[in-house]
Design brief:
Layout (H helix, E strand, L loop, with lengths): L1 E3 L10 E8 L6 H17 L4 E3 L27 H13 L2 E11 L2 E9 L5 E6 L5 E2 L2 E2 L13 E3 L4 E4 L8 H9 L4 E3 L5 E2 L4 H23 L2 E4 L3 E4 L14 E4 L3 E3 L5 E4 L6 E8 L1 H9 L2 H4 L17
Parallel strand pairs: 1-18, 2-3, 3-4, 10-11, 11-13
Antiparallel strand pairs: 2-18, 4-5, 5-6, 7-8, 9-10, 12-15, 13-16, 14-15, 16-17
Helix pairs in contact: 1-2
Amino acid sequence: MAKSTNTRRAASSSTIRLALSQMACGEDVRANRARQVRLAEAAGKKGARIFCTQELFASQYFCQSEDHRFFALAESIPGPSTDALAKIAKRYSMVVIASLFEKRASGLYHNTAAVIDADGSLLGIYRKMHIPDDPYYYEKFYFTPGDTGFRTWQTRHAKIGVLICWDQWFPEGARLTAMGGAEILFYPTAIGWHPAEKAEYGKAQHESWELMQRSHAVANGCYVVAPNRIGHEIIRGLDGKPVHKDGIQFWGQSFICQPDGQIAAKASVDKEEVLLHDADLAKVEFARTHWPFLRDRRIDAYGNMTKRFLVAP
């Protein structure tokens, strides 16, 4: 299912069509990959110039438990997922950002985004820098912290930066990526509610997630694209029984945000879909000259940002 905030592509040469997808994932990796490829192709047919997947689209969110068997889900880059999506990228002259569980070497694994340019070539990778360890988000068990730093790429259609999920809570990552010239920040995401907590905390949790990324758009004068997964995932052990009874209810609501912080397009809570928006990149220059935060930064006063904590004298 595809949804668009614009029924036709704008005539401006600075306007490009952005796309993301959200979907539910099951235990079959091949089925998940095939579904993601179909959604990417749907975006390409709709004229998307840059397309981004949700976080770790090839599997369920296995980090709900610490289980060595899930390392078998990891793949190389290049590998089967990048190969399949590169064909779509080339066919539709569309940049593709693919979020993957990367096996870098034996015993060395990363949560990684591959950036595929519009000619189907692998432009580069970003490895998730901030690794969480929260209830049912046991990522430190699986992922080595990223060593790529905060990167930008000049793709055929725009200069972009990619960060991943937990990275979205850190303004430093967004700022450094924007300082590299990124016009659009992409945040492949897997976030949802613990069902037992939803009634009490759910509304505030979701609004905090959305607000944080909107603030990145304002503070850095850029577009922000945040694809999230949908579905209620319960991880099962070797005995077929749930590792824990509640699982995670992913809240979907993927969105595309303008440089002024306004949400330009937003997906549903629970429907598989492709979300599209025609983004005018001239708004990036407008935002950065009318709200010149980059100009007015006091870089002479920020040395303490590299320290863990400051103790008052």
